[in-house]
Structures are given as structure tokens and as C-alpha cells.
């Protein structure tokens, strides 16, 4: 150590230059250090949620994860809300904005909530740009803005500034020179910069570690500067030659400073043994920082002290000394009482600290949550073989008032519906404008076509005519596609559909009304019939007899036919064919029916008749057991119906133009819910990320999944992560406490070569940990789990130095 001390002092200028150069390089590396805000990366390798995240990434590579920025306005009118929505949608990097003017989810009295989505991560330049733009665009509005970042927030700058101010106050008060604190800060400042910069070679650090590393490194390492400076002053009192005094100070102080730092480093490194890897991240960075501080104290500070020798003398001041003689005397007299008190404190605080609630989420100020409770999203990832069981769980969850929705493939896009049910489901879809109104009637047609592969029935003429009049022309979605002639003569067609009415005798006035003919003309035809036919009776003629006579006898006679124009003659011939078909009761195929009705219209479309046949069969021959899912329906529409000419007029160009996009959207939706081996149940609830109510909800959900599923399942989400940590952190903390205590015990044992001293010191410091936690609980607060880890590591690893120092002085005094 003497040789090393001589080298450090003799080469102090070179060493100082090298260390400052290293500091400069590390300062340039700090902005390049990746700061991770995703706490899921620090879950143990055997964590259910971590395994689930890996499985989900593999099974659902295209799942879009978006970040949210919630914006709440107060006092906007309806028109202003529409304008605000448009303005938010136009902001760069915003992918979409959720808002529904008719939904209570987004409107509460005078308050309106807009939720902007972006693919850029929280804290990124793009996400911050969105927030800045919103504040600038709506500066004159009564507005609150909160992003959805659930990661641990950075320590506020005012807290860092306050801690630094307290540190400076103590240093300036306790040091013998006004310059000494500045030298300490320079040495520790270089150590902090080097530590932060060397994190670049670690790959990445958590935002928690990054935000607290500097302040903790400073307070943990400042002791070493003070210890070296005090030893230097002692050596100067023996020999006033500065360089020799510094060499002796380095040699003589090394043991005490090194042993103090070793306990701190060991205490911090015990965090590496945590299964939750945030402990490893925190422990490595802080332990590295303490070691670098130790290195800087032995390399940078000696050179600074020697270079500033004159300034130290010129700024000398009276040291603040706190009188301790009375305390020492009292402590000695009450030593037995204090020993008993310690035993009581240790046992009592150990018991009481167990009742202090542990927290795994730091609450942030969220004024929006007071009006619009934030949505808590959880995902249950399960094997496809368990789909039926999980769908039943989802249906039960929707009865829970805290659950807004529980969505998986089988209860949405993959849910099997009857025709009427599917019509309602399509009506409820957000994308209502799909180019055609697919109502229950159309779905009956599609169901029949799908299940019967387009097979068309044979239909009696009378039944088809009644169907046209009663069903087709009464349906506004289909009536417009029927031939104009048929639509205009719907009432007449219905008359021709009744075989009994067509064969019943009628008096001349009834026939005139039936055909809408002039009564005088009908009377003349009646007289002509009586004169030409031997079967003329007094009961009148049936419609069939009348038409057969007119077509067969009257129109074939040139003299008589002159009384009818060409159109009327053609209509009567068509009517004769139709009446014969109706009265005969024969069934006709679609093509035969097209020919049969061809006389009624010059533009009758055979494809439309086939569609009417499908319509007829869909209403009368459908099986109630037939079901289709939304996805199957759109697959069928895309693959079969779009190319089917029978649906040309009904579906139209708008539908054809949209069908591929609609199917792509549905396929994307399916890909979000169902993978090759696993499916996702997405649960949205109004539960807090962490609360007793949330814990009960998750416990119940896990119990149901354990009971009902046969394969592996994984629960994913912020609440799921908190729940998992809650279940396992107690054991983790016990392990860290034992490892830390044993490690520190061994270090102190080596230092003093006595088992009693390290045992007492470890128990004393652990009692301090228990008291700290108990006091927090007595105040009604919970303690953040990372705060407990830090308290445990710092108190056991760092404050034990003071016990070591006190014991060392005591042993020296006992010798004399």
C-alpha cells in the first residue's frame, strides 16, 4: 500500500488528467445509455407473466401495442367537442383518438374525455411532442392531460435539489475549510459521471436505477472523502510536509475506508440474488458506483487536496463540534437499560413491520381519474383447447360490475350466431357502414346458401306470387330491386296467386273489378261467351274460364280481336299461362319460373328470380340450428357471394369495393385474439392497478382458471405483474435480508476476528430497518417495495460502517 500511495502522490497530475479524461468520455456516453421503462423485463425467468409475454410475442407477432394520452376538457359545447376531436386527430404521431359523443365513457356532465393513441413509447421524443402539441393547441381551455405510463416515475428535480442542499449544508458546517466540500463534490461528481457513463456497457438500466443512482452514490460515498481528509489532517499534525502527509494518509486510511466500502458493496450486491431482476439491475449499478467512488477518492481527491493546499489554508474556518460528553456518560450509565430496550425494540419492530402494507405501484397525480376511472386492461393467454372453458369464464366476468368487457375470439368474431342474432351483432359493430344493409332477411338467404350450397327449391306458382307480394315487396331492402312491372302490379299478382279464387264463378261486375276492365266490355264478352259456348250457365264465369275464352276464342277471331289493343292481348295471354300454372299447382324451378313470369315484364332478370328463390328457401326451409360467426360470414361473402351474379343488384358497387378491406380488418381482429396454439381473453376493468379489490378479483380469476382449464395459461398486465410480485416478494425479501446479514457478518468477522461484534452490529442495523418500516406503517402508509430494498441494502451495507468505526475506536481505547 505504501508503494501504491507513493505512486498516486508522485504521479498525481498525470493520474488526475487521466481520470478527468475518463470522466469526459463517460459523460459523452451517458446520453447513449438505454433507459428501460418496461418493468416486465425484470420479471424472473420462471415468472408466469414473463413466460406468457414470450408466448404472446411468438403467437401474436402482429399485435399492436399503443400508448395512450388521456385529455379531459371542461365546459366544451357539442360543436367544440367535435372540433377538439378533429384537432387531436391531426397532431403528428397520433394514430387515432377515441371519443363518442353519445357514450357515458367519454362524457360526464360538463367534462369530455378524449384518448389519443400512438405507437411511440412513453418518454420518447415523439410521445413528448404529442403532449407538448396538445398543451400548445389547447392552452386557452380548461384541460388536464395524463399519459398512461405505469412505469415508476423519476425522482422530481426539487427532491434531488433539496437533498443536495442538505448535503452541502452539512459539509460546510462540519468541514474545517470552505474549500473542502467543493473538492469532495468534484471527486464524487467524477465518480458519478463515470458510473453513469459505464452503464453503456451494461446494455441498459431501468429508469428507477437511472433516476436514483447518482444521489445514492453521492450519499453512500461521501464518507470516504471525509475519512481521507481527516486522516490527512492528522498526518499533517505529525509532519507538516504535505506530500509525505498525503502518502501516510493514503497508506493508513486505506484499510478503514476499504473495509467500509466493502460492506456497502457487499450489501448492494446481495440484491443480485433477487429473482426479480430489478434487484440485480439496482445492485450492480450502485455497487459499481461505490467502487468507482472509492477509486476516485484514492486517485482524484489526493491530487485535488495537494493542488488546493493554499486555498484550504486561506479558507480555514472553525469546525462545528457537537458536545457528546453528556450523551456518552448517560449512555454508559444506562447501558443495561439500553440493552434491554434494544431487545424490546428488536422484537417489537420485527412484529410490527409485518403489518406495514407493501406497495408495488407508485401512485401519481391523476385528476382525470376522479371523473373518468382509468381502464385497467388484463390479458388471459390460454391454450386453444381450453377455449370453451375460458369463454364460459368470460361470460361470467361480464356480470361483474367492475368489468367493462371480457373479449376473446369465441365470444366476438368467432361466436356462432343464428341469423337474427347475427343481424343484431352486426348492428352493434362500430363499422356500421359496410356498403349494404345486411339485415336478418339477407342473413337468412346467406345462411341457406352457405349450408345448402346454393341449392334452389321448386316452388308452386301461387306460392311464389304470394311470396313476392307479401314478403319481397313488403321488404324495403328488396322491393327496390324487383322489376318495375311486377312491383307496380303487386296487388294484381296477389289476386292471381289464389287458385280457388281463379276457379270460382264470378258475375260480370266482379270480373271487371278483378281485371280492372270496363264493365260494358265484360258484359259484352259474357254475352259473346253465352252465344258461342254451350256450357254457359247463370252462375257466371271463373277467372280461368274468362281468360281461356278471351284468349282462345276472342283473340283468335279477327273481328273480335280488334276490340283489344296489342298490349292488352299480350297481358291476357301471359295471364292465361300464369293462371293455368297456379290452378294446376305444379312446382317450377327458378329458370321455369323466369319463363313463366316473363310475359309480365320485358326486363325480368333470371338472377333476381334465383335470388328470390333463395329468399323464399331462407325464410321457409332454414334450420334454426344453423349458425355462422362474423368471420365465417365475411369469408363466405368474400369468397362466394361477391362473384355470384344473383347478388349483383342487392350488394352493389360500394359493398364490392369495401369487402376486401372489411375482411382484412376482420382478419386483423382475429389475429389479435386467436393464434396457432393460444388465444387471448382481453379483460378491461375499472379496477385500480393495485388495490385490495384488484387482488381479490385476480385471486378469483386465477382460481377459476385453475379449476376450469386443462393446459397452461398466463395472466398478463400491470395488475397481474403486481399480483405476482405480491405473492413472491415476501420470500424474496427474507432471502435478501438473510444474505445481506450473513455477508456483512462475514466481512465484519474478518475485520475484527470476533463473532460477537459482527453479530451485535448486524442485529443493531437490522433493528433500524424494522423500526423504519414499522414507523411508516404506524403512519398509515405503505412502503414501496423498491424503497424497502434500498433501505435494507443501505442501512445494512452503509450505516454498519459507523458501528465498525465506533467499535474500532472503542477497542483502541480499551488497549490503554
Structure in a nutshell:
This protein has 816 residues and is of the alpha+beta class. The relative contact order is 0.11.
Give a written overview of the molecule:
About 65% of the residues lie in helices and about 10% in strands. It is built from 35 helices and 15 strands. Strands 2, 3, 4, 5 and 6 form a 5-stranded antiparallel β-sheet that branches. A 4-stranded antiparallel β-sheet has the order 10-13-9-14, sandwiched between helices. The chain starts with a helix and ends with a helix.
Task: Indicate the topology.
Layout: H1 2-10, H2 12-29, E1 34-36, H3 48-59, E2 67-74, H4 78-89, E3 96-98, E4 107-108, E5 111-118, H5 125-137, E6 143-147, H6 157-174, H7 180-198, E7 204-206, H8 207-238, H9 242-269, H10 277-307, H11 309-314, H12 325-333, H13 335-353, E8 358-359, E9 376-383, H14 387-397, E10 403-407, H15 419-428, H16 440-451, E11 459-460, H17 461-472, H18 476-479, H19 484-488, H20 490-496, H21 499-503, H22 508-515, H23 519-532, H24 543-554, H25 558-561, H26 566-584, E12 587-588, H27 590-597, H28 606-620, H29 630-641, H30 648-673, E13 678-685, H31 692-708, E14 713-716, H32 718-752, H33 756-778, E15 783-784, H34 785-797, H35 800-815
Helix pairs in contact: 1-9, 2-7, 2-10, 7-8, 7-10, 8-9, 8-10, 9-10, 9-32, 9-34, 9-35, 13-33, 15-16, 16-28, 17-20, 17-28, 22-23, 24-26, 27-28, 29-30, 32-33, 32-34, 33-34, 33-35
The total of helices stands at: 35
Measured by DSSP, the beta-strand proportion falls in 5-15%
**How many angstroms separate the termini?**
28 Å
Overall outline = rod-shaped
**Helical percent range?**
55-70%
- Assembly status: single chain
| Main sheet properties | 5 strands, antiparallel
Decide which structural class fits the backbone.
Answer: alpha+beta
Report the uncertain regions: 430-436
Please provide the count of β strands: 15
Amino acid at each position: 500500500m505504501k508503494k501504491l500511495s507513493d505512486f498516486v502522490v508522485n504521479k498525481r497530475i498525470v493520474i488526475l488528467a487521466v481520470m478527468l479524461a475518463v470522466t469526459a468520455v463517460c459523460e459523452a456516453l451517458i446520453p447513449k445509455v438505454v433507459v428501460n421503462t418496461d418493468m416486465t423485463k425484470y420479471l424472473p425467468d420462471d415468472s408466469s407473466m414473463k413466460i406468457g409475454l414470450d408466448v404472446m410475442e411468438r403467437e401474436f407477432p402482429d399485435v399492436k401495442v399503443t400508448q395512450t394520452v388521456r385529455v379531459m376538457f371542461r365546459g366544451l359545447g357539442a360543436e367544440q367537442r367535435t372540433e377538439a376531436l378533429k384537432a387531436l386527430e391531426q397532431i403528428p404521431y397520433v394514430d387515432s383518438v377515441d371519443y363518442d359523443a353519445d357514450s357515458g365513457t367519454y362524457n360526464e356532465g360538463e367534462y369530455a374525455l378524449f384518448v389519443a393513441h400512438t405507437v411511440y413509447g412513453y418518454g420518447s421524443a415523439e410521445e413528448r411532442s404529442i403532449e407538448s402539441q396538445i398543451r400548445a393547441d389547447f392552452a386557452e381551455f380548461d384541460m388536464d392531460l395524463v399519459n398512461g405510463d405505469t412505469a415508476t416515475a423519476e425522482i422530481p428535480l426539487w427532491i434531488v435539489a433539496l437533498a443536495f442542499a442538505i448535503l452541502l449544508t452539512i459539509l460546510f458546517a462540519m468541514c474545517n475549510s470552505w474549500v473542502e466540500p467543493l473538492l469532495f463534490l468534484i471527486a464524487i461528481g467524477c465518480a458519478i459521471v463515470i458510473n453513469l457513463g459505464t452503464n453503456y456497457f451494461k446494455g441498459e438500466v431501468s429508469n428507477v436505477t437511472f433516476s436514483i443512482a447518482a444521489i445514492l452514490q453521492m450519499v453512500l460515498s461521501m464518507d470516504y472523502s471525509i475519512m481521507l481528509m481527516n486522516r490527512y489532517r492528522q498526518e499533517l499534525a505529525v509532519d507538516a510536509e504535505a506530500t509525505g502527509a498525503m502518502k501516510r494518509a493514503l497508506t493508513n486510511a486505506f484499510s478503514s475506508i476499504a473495509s467500509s466500502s466493502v460492506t456497502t458493496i457487499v450489501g448492494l450486491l446481495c440484491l443480485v440474488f433477487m429473482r426479480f431482476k430489478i434487484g440485480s439491475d439496482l445492485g450492480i449499478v450502485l455497487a459499481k458506483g461505490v467502487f468507482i467512488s472509492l477509486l476516485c477518492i484514492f486517485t482524484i481527491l489526493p491530487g485535488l487536496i495537494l493542488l488546493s493546499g493554499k486555498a484550504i489554508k486561506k479558507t480555514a474556518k472553525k469546525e462545528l463540534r457537537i458536545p457528546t460528553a453528556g450523551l456518552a456518560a448517560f449512555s454508559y450509565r444506562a447501558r443495561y437499560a439500553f440493552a434491554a430496550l434494544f431487545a424490546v425494540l428488536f422484537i417489537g419492530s420485527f412484529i410490527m413491520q409485518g403489518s406495514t402494507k407493501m406497495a408495488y405501484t407508485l401512485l401519481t397525480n391523476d385528476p382525470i381519474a376522479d371523473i373518468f376511472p382509468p381502464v385497467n386492461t388484463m390479458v388471459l393467454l390460454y391454450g386453444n383447447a381450453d377455449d370453451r372453458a375460458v369463454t364460459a369464464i368470460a361470460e361470467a366476468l361480464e356480470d361483474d360490475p367492475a368489468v367493462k368487457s371480457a373479449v376473446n375470439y369465441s365470444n366476438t368474431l368467432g361466436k356462432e350466431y343464428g341469423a337474427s342474432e347475427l343481424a343484431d351483432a352486426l348492428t352493434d359493430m362500430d363499422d356500421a357502414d359496410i356498403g349494404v344493409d345486411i339485415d336478418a332477411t339477407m342473413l337468412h338467404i346467406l345462411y341457406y346458401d352457405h349450408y345448402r350450397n346454393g341449392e334452389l327449391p321448386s316452388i308452386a306458382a301461387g306460392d311464389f306470387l304470394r311470396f313476392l307480394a307479401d314478403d319481397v315487396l313488403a321488404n324495403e331492402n328488396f322491393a327496390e330491386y324487383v322489376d318495375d312491372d311486377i312491383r307496380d302490379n303487386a296487388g294484381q299478382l296477389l289476386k292471381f296467386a289464389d287458385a280457388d279464387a281463379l276457379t270460382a264463378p264470378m258475375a260480370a261486375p266482379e270480373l271487371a273489378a278483378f281485371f280492372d276492365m270496363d264493365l260494358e266490355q265484360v258484359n259484352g264478352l259474357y254475352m259473346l261467351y253465352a252465344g258461342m259456348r254451350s256450357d254457359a250457365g247463370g252462375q257466371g264465369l271463373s277467372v280461368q274460364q274468362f281468360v281461356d275464352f278471351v284468349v282462345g276464342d276472342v283473340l283468335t277471331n279477327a273481328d273480335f280481336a280488334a276490340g283489344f289493343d296489342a298490349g292488352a292481348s299480350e297481358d291476357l295471354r301471359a295471364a292465361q299461362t300464369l293462371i293455368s300454372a297456379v290452378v294446376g299447382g305444379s312446382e317450377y324451378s327458378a329458370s321455369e319460373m323466369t319463363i313463366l313470369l316473363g310475359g309480365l315484364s320485358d326486363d325480368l332478370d333470371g338472377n333476381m328470380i334465383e335470388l328470390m328463390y333463395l329468399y323464399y328457401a331462407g325464410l321457409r326451409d332454414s334450420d334454426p340450428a344453423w349458425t355462422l360467426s362474423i368471420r365465417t360470414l365475411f369469408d363466405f361473402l368474400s369468397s362466394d357471394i361477391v362473384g355470384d351474379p344473383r347478388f349483383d343488384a342487392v350488394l352493389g358497387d360500394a359493398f364490392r369495393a369495401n369487402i376486401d378491406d372489411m375482411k382484412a380488418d376482420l382478419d386483423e381482429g382475429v389475429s389479435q385474439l386467436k393464434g396457432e396454439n393460444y388465444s387471448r381473453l382481453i379483460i378491461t376493468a375499472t379496477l385500480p392497478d393495485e388495490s385490495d379489490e384488484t387482488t381479490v378479483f385476480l385471486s378469483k380469476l386465477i382460481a377459476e382458471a385453475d379449476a376450469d382449464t386443462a393446459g397452461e395459461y398466463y395472466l398478463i398486465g400491470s395488475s397481474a405483474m403486481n399480483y405476482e410480485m405480491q405473492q413472491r416478494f415476501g420470500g424474496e425479501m427474507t432471502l435478501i435480508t438473510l444474505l445481506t446479514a450473513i455477508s456483512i457478518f462475514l466481512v465484519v468477522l474478518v475485520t475484527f476476528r470476533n463473532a460477537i461484534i459482527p453479530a451485535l452490529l448486524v442485529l443493531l442495523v437490522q433493528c433500524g430497518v424494522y423500526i423504519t418500516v414499522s414507523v411508516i406503517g404506524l403512519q398509515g402508509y405503505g412502503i414501496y417495495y423498491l424503497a424497502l430494498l434500498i433501505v435494507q441494502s443501505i442501512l445494512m451495507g452503509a450505516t454498519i460502517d459507523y458501528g465498525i468505526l465506533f467499535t474500532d475506536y472503542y477497542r483502541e481505547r480499551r488497549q490503554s
